[in-house]
Protein: Monoamine oxidase
Organism: Corynebacterium alimapuense
Amino acid sequence: MDADVIIIGAGLAGLQAARRLQDSGLSVIVLEASDAVGGRVRTDRVDGFLLDRGFQLLNPAYPAVREWIDIEALRLQHFGVGALIRNGESLTRLAHPLRHPQYLPEALRSGYLQPREVFALLKWLAPTLIRETASSRAQQDMTLASSLDSAGVTGPLRTSVIDTFLSGVLADASGTTSANFVRLLLRSFAFGVPGLPEQGMQALPELMAAELVHKPQTQIRVTSVAETTVGVEVGTDTGFLRAQMAIVAAGPPEAAELTETAEPKMNGLSTWWFATDHSPLKEKFLVLDASGPAGKAAGPVVHAAVVSEVAPSYAPAGKHLVEATTLLSATGNNPDEASVRRDLERMYATSVNDWELIARHELPHTLPAQPPPLNQHRSQRINDRVFIAGDHLDTASINGALLSGDRAARSVVEALSHRN
Ligand SMILES: Cc1cc2nc3c(=O)[nH]c(=O)nc-3n(C[C@H](O)[C@H](O)[C@H](O)COP(=O)(O)OP(=O)(O)OC[C@H]3O[C@@H](n4cnc5c(N)ncnc54)[C@H](O)[C@@H]3O)c2cc1C
């Protein structure tokens, strides 16, 4: 045997599984097809800019992050908890009233907070705010859109803020996501202040990998995983490896292919990264557009942010970095650069002609769709020797990937303890 356990994929799920197995005294080989660890959490350095492969945030309030990640080591640079809403000439700060009480009068004057709708939203969210496990009552789950409709969250807060904000977070604007999953996400926004690590999002998986005695082997693509009479045989593009057990943590589509299970539906988005000499707005909030008909976004950008105002380490001295996020459509009819620039011009009320598009990340496999009912305890066992892990088996998030990796590893430890 080459090791007790072989893990396929060095994304967050695979790395957490490896850490848990190592802590349990097992020998582990991690095989990664790409040139570095991280999976969907990667960062490129381009001309002094840090460009995450798709704008994303780390929320320190995620239970798995709180429990297993040395968050201090990442030196998070924090966003404001809230958003700026652009509607024509006006730009309104809608922020967490306890974290940013100074903006409350502005929010109350804005017209976005109608007492009846705010009360309905709080009532909808309250059980999950009080107790995290309230959202695991799967039988009460339904789609986000029907759940908010039936709760009476149907006013300007919904159309101009919640729907647009969530479409960026979920990479989906259809409203078909599990309402219970969204409650969990909003809970983590209520209790945490999301941010970006000083060295980019990839610092998170690198921190996890640094704890492994045997570092993940990169640029090795696994092509098959087969149960044998004595263990598993893992085929790679450089030969075969053998172990007692395997965990396939290769991301939803690849894991499905390797384990011959159903491929989950994935939602996609694009992040457009622009460099500019002047910051268009000295604010640490995402900007949402509500200038369109009925207070919806007028164009394709679901949110934008001056990332370098939040995370100065993301831009070289004297430069600024702006992200704009658009959704990828299943029909392939996606926005072009001109329409993104038009949106940014309106959202920041400035000319963007001299902004340089330095990268565009088109990510069709951003997040697995998470339809109701929310089920965080899906089986991760493929057969007696092979387990599967990833965000598609828990919640579509960093938290879900970590939890799923940990659960797969604990199942392996238990299965091995029965055998030995
Ligand atoms: C643009 C974007 C924005 C996001 N925003 C957020 C956010 O703000 N908050 C949040 O919580 N989550 C966010 N996410 C989701 C989060 O990044 C994922 O949920 C999480 O990283 C998934 O981890 P994973 O280990 O399950 O899968 P992956 O990260 O997909 O890891 C799978 C790994 O397996 C490797 N692999 C695949 N096939 C093979 C093979 N055959 N052999 C060997 N290795 C293989 C891959 O290269 C990869 O490294 C975002 C994701 C993206 C892309």
Notes: Residues 8-14, 31-34, 39-41, 54, 56-57, 221-222, 249-251, 254, 269, 363, 366-367, 390-391, 396-399, 401 surround flavin-adenine dinucleotide (CB under 6 Å).
